[in-house]
Specification:
The protein is of the alpha+beta class. It is built from 3 helices and 8 strands, in the order αβββββββαβα.
Length: about 170
């Protein structure tokens, strides 16, 4: 059964790319630390010069957007290495109601940025893989937990995760 679930979970109509993230919670400081390590095989949004991808990280508490942070954007690549760290203040009693929304965009100077893909990790995880990453982080405080995630479409995230509906 596990193999069938894994197969179905990875069967997106369009491969949007993957994102490698590391999560770590420090209870004494009430800090949720997020490392956006790298992405690979991102859907190319600009065929002429390649994508200029960046990741927007949004902390949602319950159904309220609390904080937004962004990586830098890297020019002309679909396999960016970010190695950027972000820290969010999340008191331990609020952790169970927190969700992190990761959205990958192609930077676009002429118009609005091009949506590439999204995942949600936390209370309103967008799938079993994301829920598993959150659970592993909750069970291993003060230890970084790293995992690859397949990006999902905005429609899919909006359908399964109320937190996705709270962000842009």
């Amino acid at each position: 059964v596990g193999a069938i679930l894994t197969f179905m979970e990875n069967k997106n109509e369009v491969e949007l790319g993957e994102l490698l993230l590391s999560l770590n919670y420090l209870p004494s400081a009430g800090r949720l630390n997020v490392d956006v390590i790298r992405a690979k095989q991102l859907l190319q949004t600009d065929v002429s010069q390649g994508s200029d991808p960046f990741v927007k990280i949004q902390l949602v508490h319950g159904l309220k957007l609390v904080k937004t942070k962004k990586t830098s954007f890297l020019r002309g690549t679909i396999d960016p290495f970010y190695n950027e760290s972000f820290s969010f203040k999340v008191p331990q009693e609020e952790l169970e109601n927190a969700s992190l929304v990761f959205t990958v965009f192609g930077h676009n100077v002429k118009s609005s940025n091009d949506f590439i893909g999204r995942i949600v990790i936390g209370q309103y995880s967008s799938g079993p893989s994301e829920a598993n990453h959150w659970r592993r982080m909750l069970n291993t405080h003060r230890t970084a937990v790293e995992q690859w995630h397949s990006l999902r479409s905005r429609a899919e995230c909006d359908r399964v995760s109320p937190a996705s509906l709270e962000v842009t």
